[in-house]
Specification:
Layout lengths: L3 E6 L3 H10 L5 E8 L2 H11 L3 E4 L1 H5 L6 E4 L3 H13 L3 E4 L7 H14 L3 E3 L7 H11 L6 E9 L19 H16 L5 E9 L5 E10 L2 E8 L8 E5 L3 E4 L7 E6 L2 E7 L8 H12 L10 H15 L3
Parallel strand pairs: 1-2, 1-4, 2-3, 4-5, 5-6, 7-10
Antiparallel strand pairs: 7-11, 8-9, 9-10, 11-12, 12-13, 13-14
Helix pairs in contact: 4-5, 5-9, 7-9
Keywords: Oxidoreductase, Signal
InterPro entries: Gfo/Idh/MocA-like_OxRdtase_N, Gfo/Idh/MocA_domain, GFO_IDH_MocA-like_dom, NAD(P)-bd_dom_sf
Organism: Shewanella livingstonensis
């Protein structure tokens, strides 16, 4: 099967993590990288053995040998870059959140469909084997009727007023940056959208939120979510049923999950992978393109629109 040539938009930290894992994707070739400065692109290309290094993203989009683009720039740049990549005829895997509004998300998904191109949000957590195993246990009724879902994700981020995380002009705030993980992980296990939201947040001096707690419901399931730039949270996910519970340590990058009945450990799973796990989403993108499919069933356009809707509803309380 022919390998697909990836073009990487950004030479930053997240792009580096993705490229480190791309070597584990059998159908992927790390072909090109683009950055705002040529020196940054050249350095990245040398470090990760990338064939082409470009200054400016449009140059990468215009390269006829690029099959799929991975976008890892700050959130507020995603809309224009995804748009430009699609207009250039490229398939796109875009880091989460794919956009910063519901309307932007609708525009991009509509454009991708009209062009017959793959557009997928890079919700890599959905493709991790431990996450999928936990869902199998839940769907098989191993913990009985689901009653509670608890997920949090937070790390201390030093305050820098003009930094990406805290600058409102760069779509700063922990909700978009980290909060999408608890929302998305919860939705992976729930059967319907969340409602009856109760939100508490701390807003820092730049006007963006740096700590958020969300209490809500999904049908009869109680949902507790949290995200923070102030401190490291447990970063675990708990699925609690009337016959037992499942814990997924470090759920956003899950490599294991464990199932309990009361206090007794009854089953465990560990994937023993050598990678961070980003290659699983790359494999999915390659598979879809090679099978002439333009939308993932795992992270569909509907999922991306839902994430944006949930973020907007939570944001309205802050």
């Amino acid at each position: 099967m022919t390998k697909l040539n990836w073009g990487i938009v950004s030479a930053g930290r997240i792009a580096a993590l993705f490229c480190q894992d791309l070597v584990f994707s059998a159908n992927s070739n790390l072909y090109a990288v683009a950055a705002r400065k040529q020196a940054d692109a050249d350095k990245f290309a040398e470090q990760y053995n990338v064939d082409k290094a470009y200054q400016g993203y449009q140059t990468l989009f215009d390269d006829p040998d690029v099959d799929i683009v991975y976008i890892a720039t700050p959130h507020n740049f995603h809309f224009q870059q995804v748009h430009d990549a699609l207009m250039a005829g490229k398939h796109v895997l875009c880091e989460k959140p794919m956009t910063v509004t519901v309307d932007e998300c609708h525009i991009l998904t509509t454009l991708a469909k009209s062009k017959g191109l793959l557009l997928m949000e890079a919700m890599w957590t959905y493709f991790l084997p431990a996450m999928q195993q936990a869902k199998i246990w839940l769907d098989d009724g191993r913990i009985g009727q689901l009653k509670h879902v608890k997920v949090d994700f937070g790390y201390p981020v030093p305050f820098v007023a003009n930094g990406r995380e805290y600058n409102p002009q760069l779509a700063g705030g922990c909700l978009l940056d980290m909060g999408i993980y608890p929302l998305a992980i919860a939705d992976y296990f729930l059967k319907s959208d969340i409602n009856n939201l109760y939100v508490q947040a701390h807003v820092c001096e730049t006007g963006v939120e740096d700590d958020v707690i969300i209490i809500c419901k999904s049908d009869d399931v109680m949902v507790s979510l949290a995200t923070s730039f102030q401190c490291r949270l447990s970063n675990n996910a708990y699925l609690i049923g009337d016959k037992g519970y499942i814990v997924i340590p470090d759920a956003f990058r899950a490599s294991e999950c464990h199932m309990y009945q009361l206090d007794e450990l009854v089953d465990s799973f560990t994937d023993n992978r050598q990678s961070m796990g980003y290659h699983f989403e790359a494999d999915e993108a390659c598979r879809l393109i090679q099978q002439d499919e333009i939308e993932s069933r795992v992270v569909s356009h509907k999922h991306s629109v839902l994430f944006q809707s949930q973020l907007a509803r939570v944001k309205a309380f802050i």
